[in-house]
């Protein structure tokens, strides 16, 4: 099975060390462009653009990088609860058209109550997933060309439809990650690819089996992906040295503050990540070559594969054997590590090639929409 390998755009910051401003970089458009072009040049199929109040807006970042890339796909955050599903569908179709079919979407329900409150979302965990399910049902149907009337508990629309369809048909793929039962139910019903953070293989296998079973009960199949950091070097000894160096300037006070911050999250996935290290520097290798040190101070994906190229490739292959076909990788700093991963890991894997997207019939000459209602398709 050819693997889809994605990289990461660090719109929340980048540098050589975690938990300190030492060695930090200016993450401006020029730097993000460097990373995107490097990822494309070395063979990554796409990039994940993160979301949250600590990040630049993922949609605007993606739009700004379309003209300076040719094949790279952009996995952009879709945020139910902070935008209407109809507007989100229109934006998604536009991004897909402008990029000629290079748009992918990552459904993010959020897990930090403080951040959600700042966005005007005051739903608890169960209610957020109810709202996300309703949002996604409308978003999918509108993108697929339907005129949608929907009266839900959280979402109500009448006559929702698109004038300009996306390039990818029936619509761009939807990615999603979540570890709770509600999240798995949503994934089984509505998404194309279920993402997990980098837990030990046995835990990942359990989640995959659960989602696969739930999807099968609905007559569906779901693909699987995983989000991991990578610390790869010429030798495994060097890789472990650099893993330790990455957190060399993280003090106990910073770890304690991060742990307190994580504790307020109602995200089951974040709780599982935090439990892997429990705020301790001891025993951070939680599975062979799987290191939880990143998660001491970073929310979200907190584990890294550590080793030389063949070793990291073997660990990736172990996850692939569980049914995972998409790997979203990253490393600090993200520019240099994109090259390092491609040079040391790619030769040991079957990496899917990323050919230029072909324009479909969705991109065609057409006049201006008349009366905000229809697009003329012939000359009278």
TrEMBL record:
NCBIfam families: alk_sulf_monoox, PRK00719.1. It is an enzyme of class 1 (oxidoreductase). Homotetramer. CDD domains: Alkanesulfonate_monoxygenase. InterPro entries: Alkanesulphonate_mOase_FMN-dep, Luciferase-like_dom, Luciferase-like_sf, SsuD_RutA_monooxygenase. Residues 5-325 form the Luciferase-like domain. It comes from the Bacteria. This is Alkanesulfonate monooxygenase. Belongs to the SsuD family. Catalyzes the desulfonation of aliphatic sulfonates. Its EC number is 1.14.14.5. It catalyses: an alkanesulfonate + FMNH2 + O2 = an aldehyde + FMN + sulfite + H2O + 2 H(+). FMNH(2) which is absolutely required for this enzymatic reaction, is provided by SsuE. GO terms for biological process: alkanesulfonate catabolic process.
């Amino acid at each position: 099975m050819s693997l889809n390998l994605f990289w990461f755009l660090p719109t929340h910051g980048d540098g050589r060390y975690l938990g300190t401003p030492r060695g930090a970089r200016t993450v401006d458009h020029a730097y993000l462009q460097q990373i995107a072009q490097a990822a494309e040049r070395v063979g990554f199929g796409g990039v994940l653009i993160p979301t949250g109040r600590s990040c630049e807006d993922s949609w605007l970042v993606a739009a700004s990088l379309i003209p300076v890339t040719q094949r790279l796909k952009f996995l952009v955050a879709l945020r139910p609860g902070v935008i209407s599903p109809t507007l989100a569908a229109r934006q998604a179709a536009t991004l897909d058209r402008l990029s000629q079919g290079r748009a992918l979407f990552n459904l993010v329900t959020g897990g930090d109550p403080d951040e959600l409150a700042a966005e005007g979302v005051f739903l608890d965990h169960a209610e957020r997933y109810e709202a996300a399910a309703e949002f996604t049902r409308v978003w999918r149907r509108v993108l697929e060309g339907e005129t949608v009337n929907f009266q839900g508990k959280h979402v109500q629309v009448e006559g929702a439809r698109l004038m300009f369809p996306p390039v990818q048909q029936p619509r761009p793929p939807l990615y999603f990650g979540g570890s709770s039962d509600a999240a798995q139910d949503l994934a089984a019903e509505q998404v194309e690819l279920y993402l997990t953070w980098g837990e030990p293989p046995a835990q990942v296998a359990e989640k995959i089996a659960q989602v696969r079973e739930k999807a099968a009960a609905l007559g569906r199949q779901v693909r699987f992906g995983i989000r991991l950091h990578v610390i790869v070097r010429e030798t495994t000894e060097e890789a472990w040295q650099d893993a330790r160096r990455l957190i060399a300037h993280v003090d106990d006070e910073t770890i304690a503050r991060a742990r307190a911050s994580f504790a307020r999250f109602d995200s089951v996935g974040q709780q599982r990540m935090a439990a892997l290290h429990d705020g301790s520097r001891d025993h951070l290798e939680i599975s062979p070559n799987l290191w939880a040190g990143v998660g001491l101070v970073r929310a979200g994906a907190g584990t890294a594969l550590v080793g030389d190229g063949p070793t990291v490739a073997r660990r990736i292959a172990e996850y692939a054997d569980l049914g995972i076909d998409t790997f979203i990788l990253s490393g600090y700093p993200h520019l240099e590590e994109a090259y390092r991963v491609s040079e040391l890991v790619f030769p040991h894997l079957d990496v899917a090639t990323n050919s230029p997207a072909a324009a479909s019939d969705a991109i065609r000459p057409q006049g201006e929409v008349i009366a905000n209602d229809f697009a003329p398709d012939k000359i009278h």
